[in-house]
Amino acid sequence: xxxxxxxxxxxxxxxxxxxxxxxxxxxxxxxxxxxxxxxxxxxxxxxxxxxxxxxxxxxxxxxxxxxxxxxxxxxxxxxxxxxxxxxxxxxxxxxxxxxxxxxxxxxxxxxxxxxxxxxxxxxxxxxxxxxxxxxxxxxxxxxxxxxxxxxxxxxxxxxxxxxxxxxxxxxxxxxxxxxxxxxxxxxxxxxxxxxxxxxxxxxxxxxxxxxxxxxxxxxxxxxxxxxxxxxxxxxxxxxxxxxxxxxxxxxxxxxxxxxxxxxxxxxxxxxxxxxxxxxxxxxxxxxxxxxxxxxxxxxxxxxxxxxxxxxxxxxxxxxxxxxxxxxxxxxxxxxxxxxxxxxxxxxxxxxxxxxxxxxxxxxxxxxxxxxxxxxxxxxxxxxxxxxxxxxxxxxxxxxxxxxxxxxxxxxxxxxxxxxxxxxxxxxxxxxxxxxxxxxxxxxxxxxxxxxxxxxxxxxxxxxxxxxx
Length: 468
Hints:
Elements: H1 17-20, H2 27-38, H3 43-48, E1 57-62, E2 67-69, E3 75-78, E4 89-93, E5 103-112, E6 120-124, E7 140-144, E8 149-151, E9 158-159, E10 169-175, E11 180-185, E12 188-194, E13 202-207, E14 213-217, H4 227-243, H5 249-262, H6 266-276, H7 294-297, H8 300-311, H9 315-325, H10 327-330, H11 336-351, H12 355-366, H13 373-383, H14 402-419, H15 429-447, H16 457-467
Antiparallel strand pairs: 1-4, 2-3, 3-14, 4-13, 5-10, 5-14, 6-7, 6-13, 7-8, 8-9, 10-11, 11-12
């Protein structure tokens, strides 16, 4: 196969006139780069974000003089006769609890409550005094078996739950969304308290009377408590709080309508208007809050036609119509919109297996973009489609997905809207609202020390779609 040139008349590192004049649709190039990056990110990586969870007890940083840790580092036994409050046998996990998630949870099984049953479970910080029960010192909390009290940074406890003894399974967890600690006994929820300790926290267990012995489950075995069910309930509670917020019907109607107008979905808009004609009451909105439709009504039919052509892969017709209707948009043959359309034409050749025609077209129309800084990485990825026998399964296969056609159609639509004088927004009101939502959620998470699940809008939308 004849290869495409990787050099052109442009000098390496040159920028196009589109960049120099601040082309308003430059951000569509970044959207393509996001698609490229998404192909290298697995679902597991997204969910876990590279965090490691505790797997065993830390045998180095423990009150070794008062307890014995088993060879597998998953159980401890108190071997001394306690004389005072500093004879506690304490062990932390080998790692802090992960915090880029909704919850963290672990359990202990009380093999033997010993002489006094002074077993405790909780969380402590790294510098915790390892001869004191979790909850007795600042920056720690613990649920104690001998009295059922919760201890939060001081030597006196508060009534909390039932006592626990030999044969009981007790769990401790963190709900990062509500910023609470919670505890369980034998699979039942015991209670929760505010999480007022900042920073990394280590799962911690304490034993404090002769022959006390507990084993720890960091998740290698199935938990007695239904953690997944607890998380589902927590998410549903959040969702119900959102759904109980009252919004005037015409606000949602206006958001959908302006979205359809903005992107030129004329036929869908007509069907939407017909379906909501008798169900949405007219409500007067103050002018400063009104969603101006004038910008989005601009050349609705032409924008619909161009979107349809691009979505069908008919790039020649789209370019011809742009030349007839909006010659000023394509007069700069190195503009972003021209680049995207020529790339898409090349992609359409690859899609139908006409590689020779694709090479010829690339030499004719794409070579002029090679060497322009803002286009270089994307055009190289485009050319890479020729290398793979099954390009749709390759790392650059996202170019062949329908979503990429949609992105190019969006860019053409934005170019037309930006061509109109006085246009206030190149994004729909719905998109602006969702951007604000994303920023607010990220800021809220930041205030919690970046704890909890990372907000990803597409996950929220997909989960909502599945629920309905």
